[in-house]
Sequence to fold (379 residues):
Amino acid sequence: MTDAQHIDGFILTPAGFIRGVLEHQEGRIRRIDGTPVPEYEVRHGAQDLPVVLPGFVDLHVHGGAGHDTMEGGSAVQAIARLHARHGTTSLLATTMTAPMDEIRGAMTALSSACTERATGMARVLGVHLEGPYINPGKLGAQPDFARAAALDELRSLHEIAPIRLVTLAPELPGHLELVGQLREAGFQVQIGHTLGTYEDGVAALARGAGGFTHLFNAMTGLHHREPGMVGAALAHAHYAEVIPDLLHVHPGAIRVALRSIPCLFCVTDSTAAAGMPDGDYRLGRHKVTKCLGGVRLPDGTLAGSTLTMDQALRNLVLKLGLEIEDASRRVSTHAADFLGMEDRGRLTPGAWADVVVLDRGLQLQRVVVEGETIDLANA
Fold:
């Protein structure tokens, strides 16, 4: 048995901040002791202690470090290492719409990474199948290989690598009925890349859809006489993704969602360009260009992001004005809860020792994934 490790600081527990110590051993949190403190003291008090939060959980990751999940090979390992150096301790590797043989090839490469976490990597919890079961009229940056979903096909893919989350457009023939079948089979479902109406969204939620993929993007917008899919989300959703790079969604729209959706959580939708200089990269079959802080197709369409979750946290707190405790839930706890994981996304005895340590400017000082301290030298 390895020796216990200790982290001192302002520690965010499910009950709020304490000033104290977190002890972890063999990959799990063993003990958290300390004295409760208000968040004001954490941010402005005299003691310059680090801020200790749950590791970030990102359910929508296409790439990073110059690699794309659809590449196959060892791409996902490089991606998971890049995001670990930015505080993401667990993630879903996210596929693109493509011919089925390409999706199967990507899933085959993802399989081993979902089974075993190599040194320096974030935990790959499984796969977010963002395509191909989407509306061909609302592709966004997805290649034009959309197709109708079939449960047998999904089960076949799931046998290759564990699918934890499926994005689909509920208005397509047979998809509404499929939502309930997918939930019964154990898959979580999000509504996305959709031309569906408000009524389609409400019906899909009633059948068991759990949330919405990159809220506001690639879906029908809100109008006061046609509330659209965005209206369905704002009126009825308990969970939804949002990309808080302040480019995909205006800060004002994020504020609307924060007031409407109790467990709105953040994703990066990051591409191969994350952590890389400006230039050309791949997103599935597409060539995309990173410049001016964003990633776009040649026609100017936004194509994923360069966001990392540590920057997402800073945007929520420093740009949108959220309390650290609230922001932490939106980059960690809510996503874990959405997938039904009670031992990630929170600092509590028995949970995985997934921890980020930050200074008062919310810059990373240390990242721990399942008890392993990550080398941040190349972050």
The CA atoms of residues 16 and 45 lie 16 Å apart. The chain has two domains: 5-53+349-373, 55-338.
